[in-house]
Write a structure and sequence with these properties.
Blueprint (H helix, E strand, L loop, with lengths): L8 H9 L2 H20 L5 E7 L2 E7 L7 E6 L2 E6 L5 H8 L5 E3 L3 E5 L6 H12 L1 H6 L2
Antiparallel strand pairs: 1-2, 2-3, 3-4, 4-6, 5-6
Length: 137
């Protein structure tokens, strides 16, 4: 399924304000979030909105996953996760050398680096289903 256009004008405005190199990288990450959601069992759709001043992605049905946000961290693009989860610690265990991390809150991607799509998709899927997996015995 093709990546949906940005329907929220506030989110569209936020993307348009970013420098072009960040826009390009973050739009690729946005596309990967929607592609991953389509391929992830239990995720019916992803809602795009603005949270904490950043484009944010929430899986539905409500409560299945943890919010993913996109932004900038220095000279890198960032995929932010809620720091009170164990998501980034889990990503570090799976991919200790593959990504740059910002504490327990983000995966950082160099603007000119090729996206490691398989690994990122795995991390995104874990976030989109975080609460579902956490509650499964």
């Amino acid at each position: 399924m093709p990546t949906p256009a940005i329907s929220d004008p506030v989110v569209a405005k936020m993307f348009s304000k970013l420098p072009e190199q960040y826009q390009n990288c973050l739009m690729k990450l946005r596309e990967l979030i929607f592609e991953t959601a389509d391929a992830t069992e239990g995720v019916l759709k992803v809602t795009e909105c603005l949270k904490w001043g950043q484009p944010s992605y929430v899986a539905e049905p409500n409560g299945i996953g943890s919010t993913i946000r996109l932004g900038q961290e220095g000279d890198k693009a960032a995929i932010y996760f809620i720091c009170s989860t164990n998501l980034v610690e889990t990503f570090k265990a799976w991919y200790p050398e593959r990504f740059h991390y910002a504490g327990n809150r983000a995966i950082l991607i160099g603007l000119n680096e090729p996206l490691p799509e398989n690994e990122l998709s795995h991390c995104i899927a874990m976030a989109l289903t975080y609460h579902k997996r956490k509650s499964t015995p």
